[in-house]
Write a structure and sequence with these properties.
The structure is a homodimer of 254-residue chains. Chain A has 254 residues and is an alpha+beta fold. In chain A, 27% of the residues lie in helices and 31% in strands. Chain A contains eight helices and nine strands. A six-stranded antiparallel sheet of chain A has the order 3-4-5-8-7-6. Chain A has a two-stranded antiparallel sheet with strand order 1-2. At the A-B interface, strand 6, strand 7 and strand 9 of A face strand 6, strand 7 and strand 9 of B. Strand 6 of chain A pairs antiparallel with strand 9 of chain B. The first copy, chain A, binds a DNA duplex (30 and 30 nucleotides) through helix 3.
Chain lengths: 254, 254
DNA sequence: GTAGTCCGATTGTCCGGACATACGCATTGA
DNA sequence: TCAATGCGTATGTCCGGACAATCGGACTAC
């Protein structure tokens, strides 16, 4: 007598298209992720063993494992040797990516706007030169922007970039975020070093952000590197804490 | 005539111990990571192809790939199809893990101290109940701690935990961090949801942290989940921004 | 001289199998 | 009654091979 079927993936209508250029493991991981997202795979449920899943889909076990592993890395699944793979009791949304404020606001349904206050080239100060790894006094771009949401000022952004990487049109800067511009210029972002702190607003800062002098501000400094290790951007940002806070999810790596 | 040898890994004295219980791919990735750390593999240098490396070590290509992949995930290496694998021009230290303030301070050479102000069990407020996923009014632990470094107050930490997970001895809380206690109680931390902001200090907060009333404070709220998805901790922390800021590195996931 | 094409090199994907290891549970033993 | 043992099951590790996709440079054609 066959044991009762409790594998939730059998009722999931999983399938792969071998003629597609999309890798098989990726097709599978996307379908599993969608099933988790839509509640077809309920949190806590066991996934049924890899061997059988591979056989049912006509895939090899390494391919199935690769699909599952990618979801484990995303924090959606947990594997236990001798037990099985089960869906994490979610709460997981997105595990913190290198996001631009512009994209964040847009995704949140706030309509972001940007006002470019300064867009020029000038000699690098000592701090900027050190952060970007360029000679002090050498030319760098300097961009100062005011970011608004629903017409209200939300952040004041100062960025320095090495020259020669991309053209910074003021119109483009007002239409989208800096990261999107860099990506479309062929720069592949790799990592960033961030520092988040707080301090009181100076008189000038207070006026720009429509806050009172001495009001608490949220500060963020960030240096971004591309995959060759070059620093491609150094940002010094201040945010109004009543309007913005940093929200993110992070995973414990085992 | 053989082509000139430019593979930097040949002079690296890599070797694996097949009698060790440590997985082969892990042995290899650790040796490569150490070589990068010590400068024996210079940033930007190409790694020589996987096939040859596998042959030289007496390993299969999948095993070598697994080792390399783990370092790619850490941000230390970059792969390019048709080109090779090269060492990232570093700056990478650690890609943001779920760290406790206590461990951070200890690692930074500051000698952390903890003063437990409150350690009790009480009915959950609505906010705490919602964060922990327990019924409102049910029992929860409440811990209030003052964290000091070099005798100076640095942060004020309020934590709520479900009852029944672990015993919270005041002595233990003063000797180490909360996360270390949870891990040693057999709880496997999985993910956390964080929110970082800023606001002005109330009179009571100012006194506890030796700041002026209205001084800017850095705030962090965090809910931590174990691998079954249960919320195991809810923290509401305030930091003195003149003494502490959040520093971390993050990777762009491709 | 310039643009397009071909080709070698290298990683990306996938397969089918083998054995090791750890967990949970039932059985056995004191 | 309770602890120790054994067993089934699932994931973890590893192998050797095969073909595809892409990059960069050399070569060729215009």
């Amino acid at each position: 007598m066959p044991k009762p079927d409790v594998d939730p993936t059998v009722s999931l209508d999983l399938s792969v298209d071998r003629s597609s250029p999309v890798p098989l493991y990726f097709q599978l991981s996307q379908q599993l992720e969608a099933a988790i997202e839509h509640g077809n795979l309920t949190p806590g449920s066991l996934l049924g063993n890899e061997i059988e899943l591979a056989a049912r889909l006509g895939l090899s076990r390494p391919t199935v494992r690769q699909a599952i592993q990618s979801l484990v890395d995303k924090g959606l699944l947990v594997r236990r040797r001798g037990v099985g793979t089960q869906v994490v009791h979610s709460q997981v949304k997105r595990p913190l990516e290198l996001s631009s404020l512009y994209d964040d606001l847009e995704a949140a349904g706030q309509r972001p706007a940007t006002k470019v206050l300064v867009n020029t080239v000038l000699p690098a100060s000592a701090a900027v030169a050190a952060a970007l790894g360029v000679p002090e006094g050498g030319d760098v771009h300097r961009v100062e922007r005011l970011r608004l949401a629903h017409g209200e000022p939300m952040a004041y952004l100062v960025n320095h970039l090495p020259t020669g990487l991309l053209d910074l049109g003021t119109e483009q800067l007002e239409a989208t975020g800096l990261y999107r511009l860099m990506r479309s210029a062929g720069i592949t972002l790799h990592s960033a070093r961030q520092s988040i702190g707080a301090r009181s607003a100076t008189a000038a800062e207070a006026e720009r952000l429509a806050e009172a002098e001495g009001a608490p501000l949220l500060t963020m400094q960030r240096t971004t590197f591309d995959d060759t290790g070059r620093a491609v951007e150094f940002g010094d940002h201040i945010y109004r804490p009543t309007r913005y806070s940093f929200e993110f999810q992070l995973l414990v790596r085992p």
